[in-house]
Design goal:
This protein is an all-alpha fold. It contains two helices and no strands. Helix 1 (19-31) crosses helix 2.
Length: 69
């Protein structure tokens, strides 16, 4: 069963993002094995690990790997 996540706005490295959206994405990507939690733990702030995880997910699912959700 596919879980659907609803974000308030897009998440990209260039834009101001909603921290709730970042938190939802990090938890979902961690659960799917795409996000590697940093040593200091997960935060609601966008970081390079998040965008690497997004790209990894996109590549594995035959999507354009632009790092934008």
């Amino acid at each position: 069963m596919v879980k659907v996540y609803r974000l308030k706005s897009s998440v990209s490295p260039q834009d101001e993002v909603d921290l709730d959206d970042v938190w939802v994405l990090k938890k979902a990507l961690k659960k799917s094995g795409h996000y590697d939690e940093p040593q200091h733990g997960m935060t609601p702030y966008p970081d390079s690990s998040l965008f690497k995880a997004i790209k990894r997910f996109q590549i594995e699912n035959s999507l354009r790997p632009d790092g934008i959700v």
